[in-house]
TrEMBL record:
Assigned keywords, A-Z: ATP-binding, Kinase, Membrane, Nucleotide-binding, Phosphoprotein, Transferase, Transmembrane, Transmembrane helix
Native organism taxonomy: Bacteria, Pseudomonadati, Pseudomonadota, Alphaproteobacteria, Rhodospirillales
Molecular function GO terms recorded: ATP binding; phosphorelay sensor kinase activity
Name of the featured protein: Sensor protein FixL
Domain Histidine kinase per the UniProt entry, residue ranges: 489-714
Native species: Nisaea acidiphila
Length: 860
């Protein structure tokens, strides 16, 4: 304490003593009032400064942390020092101090107000410890309290302080004055009042106002600094009351948003929302508001009163008064419309890309520069049989046969290192490997791209299985057509010859005694002729030009295979084991019974030839459903129910090249003289003729497997052909009707005449359609016209019968042929099925067919 102040104090005390008790009491009350006013003044000012520093700190945390080398707090302290250094202080001897708690019992003054260089003269402690009066007061402030304290300093000075915490920081603002400095003006004022009360009072008022103006000017300067910060920001600064209505919104962000301040004042946040406020994010926000918790980066769509639509990102903290009462929220809001719109456009583009990727009709695979699979679309899943999650992250070589897989990584590495392209930007045919081990032909195109500065490759894959299958079917069909045209003409003439031989043999046999040796010899000749007829029929079946419309049998495959077991066993060597795995659940099939038996025997013999040193053959049947889109359906098999017959062996197997050709006519791997190359093609032709399919699976060294698919029978019927309707012991009824027989082969005309006349019919013959028309246009009754299908001249048998129907509408019709080519379409074949007998026919077959045709009602 200075001497001057001490003398003044003693004079004041003496005068007060002389003034008497009443004057002393009055002065005492005035003094206490003066001190209380000083306390209030200090407390108000320190609270204002603390709030100001808190605002600066909040701003620095958001905007200045990255700009200041020591972070947001350091930036705040720098600004605080500048503010303190720019003002003269609270009073002539007052000081503003910013404390920070260094440890549990130690507080450090980190910013002092510079007041005319008198800090050093004050000898203020840089550190204050808990346990001292000063330390106890600071401890209360750091606990969140705002208040004042009066105590003796370390050097004996009577000190008055006011303290207030800086919210959101670990700082405490302290305003400190010496009581003697506070008392000095009071004492002087009392003396002057005693001498010249009015003048002294006026002077005291002027001095007090001047000091207050200095502090207010300093605070105004800080407020202006904060306003400058706010004006330069793109964020709104907003305040909401306890009902969450906007009561204050800084308008400085107007250029940065379409939403104006006056449009939100008095509204709650959800009042301006342009989206559902019952979603999870809004429920979470309400929970935070209810619990008075801060929230950050709450993004929502809003619409102003005039219809402007914006997206805002809001952050806020709760506000409480000194008593802890909730007063509302304050915070910032940023217009993020452009950012959200860009994000939405990006999301839309990604969704379009995803939909296109998933819906592409070709397989698409994305791989990294190291060959790892990064994307695998649904079409690729269908092609390879893998789910995407089964292949993602794995090397793409898993989808390649071994002969390609071992070199693939080297190709990628070579391209990455040299840039030399072999397949990129072009396309080639390769083989893929499915999950079940099948190889599939693929057309592969590869493109290069960069994703995030990382090299990637996109492969587009087209499954060529259907195309290859169709090409193979076309190739085989072309060969079959060529063979059919060649064999058909031969078969026609050969069937005529066989017909003459068979017919005459049967006529001769009827004249012989059954017990005679000649009868037996003729019987053998008839059997040979029938076998010859069977061979020509199989040749025509093979080329799909059999003369009669297809009449199928209803066949139980389990019964057929069981019935062939003995025959198969006798045909194989002892070192070959045959195992059957048959089921009663396999539905019956609709096909030619003898053709099915031949197909099974053919496949078994083929398996035997693949196992010269012995092995195992397995024959099995089962029900099979073909679904749309699977490999069988893509190969041309109609979706539906089938019976599957499997014939597999443990033989030497076949290469891929051999497997692709085994169903081609005349292809064989057997030595010359050991095979014709027609066995498997005939099985293939039977499967197709029956509405089914056959697939072969084989690898060298692991054996082969043939899967024959035949349509399951869904209707009823016996499928019998003309000529099978009466057994050999049944007497065939004749008649007295008149039959016109038309054939360009006179030998057959003679046989037909003999057979029919023997049964009582009247027979007229014609060697050409023209001759037949002359008879039809003449007199005499004609009950039935029996005509060959193919004859020399411009008119065939059907055309002749149609002309006959015009001339004689009630005439009955019957056709015969050993070869029709492709003259019948499916509808015609069905129509003529019961009115066509195949050459060579037996005498009994002819008699049966004629009687059946005559007994039919006339068709419209």
């Amino acid at each position: 304490m200075s001497p001057k102040v001490g003398i003044v104090g003693r004079i004041v005390l003496a005068l007060l003593a002389v003034g008497g008790v009443s004057t002393g009491s009055s002065i005492y009350l005035l003094h206490e009032t003066h001190l209380q006013r000083e306390r209030d003044h200090l407390q108000d000012e320190v609270r204002i400064v603390s709030n100001l520093i808190a605002s600066v700190a909040a701003f620095d945390r958001k905007f200045s942390a990255s700009d200041h080398p020591d972070g947001a707090l350091a930036a705040t302290l720098d600004q605080t020092r500048e503010a303190f250094d720019s003002q003269d202080g609270l009073s002539a001897a007052g000081e503003l101090i910013l404390f920070r708690r260094a440890s549990g019992d130690r507080f450090v003054a980190i910013v002092h107000q510079n007041i005319d260089g008198r800090r050093e003269a004050r000898e203020h402690d840089e550190e204050v410890f808990l346990g001292t009066p000063y330390g106890e007061a600071l401890a209360k402030g750091f606990q969140g309290a705002t208040g004042t304290a009066r105590f003796q300093s370390r050097i004996g000075e009577d000190i008055l302080i006011a303290y207030a915490p800086v919210k959101g920081t670990d700082l405490l603002t302290v305003a400190e004055v010496r009581v003697s400095d506070v008392n000095a003006p009071f004492i002087q004022t009392i003396l002057i009042v005693i001498l010249i009360a009015t003048v002294v009072g006026l002077l005291g008022t002027v001095v007090a106002r001047r000091e207050a103006v200095n502090v207010v000017d300093a605070l105004d300067s800080e407020r202006k600094k904060l306003k400058d910060f706010a004006d330069s920001a793109s964020d709104w600064l907003w305040v909401q009351d306890e009902n969450f209505r906007y009561v204050s919104v800084d308008d400085s962000a107007r250029p940065h948003t379409q939403l104006r301040v006056e449009q939100v004042l008095g509204m709650r946040r959800e009042d301006s929302a342009d989206e559902s406020t019952s979603t999870e994010k809004w429920l979470q926000l309400r929970e935070k508001l209810k619990n008075r918790e801060p929230f950050k980066n709450f993004v929502y769509r809003a619409r102003s009163k005039d219809g402007e639509r914006v997206a805002l990102s809001a952050s806020g903290v709760p506000v409480f008064d000194n008593s802890g009462r909730f007063r509302g929220y304050r915070g910032t809001a940023t217009d993020v419309t452009e950012r959200l719109d860009r994000a939405q456009k990006l999301a839309d583009a990604e969704e379009r890309t995803r939909v296109a990727f998933d819906s592409m009709t070709v397989g698409v695979i994305e791989i990294s520069r190291h060959g790892g699979i990064e994307a695998f679309n649904p079409k690729a899943e269908q092609m390879f049989g893998y789910r995407a999650e089964e292949v993602l992250g794995k090397n793409v070589s898993m989808l390649m046969p071994q002969r390609y897989a071992r070199d693939h990584d080297g190709f990628i590495k070579h391209f990455v290192e040299t840039g030399e392209k072999k397949i990129i930007g072009t396309g080639r045919e390769v083989s893929g490997l499915t999950k079940n081990g099948d190889e599939i032909p693929i057309h592969l195109g590869v493109a290069e791209m960069n994703v995030g500065n990382e090299q990637r490759f996109i492969g587009s894959l087209t499954d060529l299985s259907t195309q290859k299958s169709l090409e193979t079917m076309l190739r085989r069909s072309t060969k079959l057509d060529a063979i059919g045209q060649l064999s058909g003409g031969i078969a026609h003439d050969f069937n005529n010859l066989l017909g003459i031989v068979l017919g005459n043999l049967e006529l001769i046999q009827r004249k012989l005694e059954p017990d005679s040796r000649l009868f037996q010899q003729v019987e053998k000749a008839i059997g040979a002729a029938k076998r010859g007829a069977g061979l020509t029929r199989k040749l025509l079946d093979f080329s799909r030009q059999a003369p009669e419309a297809q009449q199928l049998d209803i066949v139980d495959t389990t019964e057929i295979i069981s019935g062939l077991e003995d025959l198969i066993g006798r045909s194989l060597s002892a070192n070959i084991e045959v195992k059957t795995d048959l089921t009663e659940d396999a539905p019956p099939v609709e096909c030619d019974r003898s053709d099915l038996e031949d197909a099974i025997i053919n496949l078994v013999m083929n398996a035997k030839d693949a196992m010269p040193k012995g092995g195992r053959i397995r024959i099995a049947n089962s029900a099979r459903t073909v679904e749309p889109g699977e490999r069988l359906a893509l190969a041309g098999l109609a979706p539906g129910q089938y019976t599957q017959i499997d014939i597999s062996d443990s033989g030497s197997g076949m290469s891929r090249e051999t497997l692709d050709q085994i169903f081609d006519p005349f292809f064989t791997t057997k030595p010359a003289g050991k095979g014709t190359g027609l066995g498997l093609p005939m099985v293939y032709a039977f499967a197709k003729r029956s509405g089914g399919h056959i697939l072969a699976y084989s690898e060298q060294g692991t054996g082969s497997s043939f899967k024959l698919y035949l349509p399951s029978h869904t209707g009823t019927g016996t499928g019998s052909r003309i000529g099978d309707r009466a057994d050999d012991t049944e007497t065939i009824r004749g008649g007295t009707e008149t039959i016109l027989v038309v054939d360009d082969e006179e030998g057959l005309l003679d046989i037909a005449r003999s057979v029919l006349e023997e049964r009582g019919y009247s027979v007229r013959t014609a060697v050409s359609p023209a001759a037949a028309l002359e008879i039809l246009n003449g007199d005499g009754e004609i009950d039935l016209i029996f005509s060959d299908f193919i004859m020399a001249g411009e008119m065939n048998g059907i055309e002749l019968i149609e002309k006959a129907a015009e001339i004689r509408p009630r005439v009955k019709k019957l056709l015969t042929s050993g070869f029709t080519g492709h003259a019948f379409n499916p509808e015609e074949a069905q129509h003529w099925a019961a009115k066509l007998i195949a050459k060579p026919y037996s005498n009994r077959t002819l008699a049966t067919a004629v009687r059946a045709a005559l007994d039919e009602e006339i068709s419209s």
